[in-house]
Amino acid sequence: MKLTTALSALALLVAAPTAFAADVPEGTVLSENQTYTFWLLDAIKSMDPQINTDVEGSDILRNLFEGLYNEDAKGDIVPGVALSHDLSEDGMTYTFHLRPEAVWSDGKPVTAGDFVYAWQRLADPATASEYAWYMELMQVVNASKITAGELPPSDLGVKAIDDHTLEVTIETPLPYFPQMLVHGSTFPVRQDVIEKFGADWTKPENMIGNGAYTLTEHILGERVEMDKSDTYWDADKTVMTHLTALTINDVNQGLTRYLAGELDRVDIPAGQYPRLKKEYPDEATSLPYSCSYIYMMNMSEKGPEALKDVRVRKALSYAMNRDIVVDNILQGGQHPSYNWTHWATAGFEMPEIDYAGWTQEERNEKARELLAEAGYGPENPLDLTLNYNTSEDHKKIAIAAQQFFKPFGVNLTLNNMEWKVHTDKMQNQDFDLARYAWCGDYNEASTYLDLFTSYSGHNNGHFFNDEYDALMKESKTAEDPQPLYTQAEQILASEMPIIPIYHYAQVDMISSDIKGLPTENVMQTWYGKDLYRIAE
Amino acid sequence: MIVYILKRLAIAIPTLLLLIIFSFLLMHAAPGGPFTQERELPAQVLANLNAKYGLDQPLWKQIASYIWGIVAHFDFGPSFVYKDRTVNEIIAQGFPVTLTYGGVSFVVAVVAGVTLGAVAAVKHNTIIDYFAVGVSIGAQVLPNFVMAPILVIVFTLILGWLPGGGWRFSDPSYWIMPVIALSTSYMASIARIMRSSMLEVLNSNHIRTARAKGLPGHRVIWRHALKPALLPVISYLGPAFVAMITGSVIVDIYFSTGGIGKAFVDSALNRDYAVMMGVTILVGALTILFNLVVDIIYGWIDPKIRY
Question: What ipTM was estimated for this complex?
Answer without folding.
Answer: 0.86
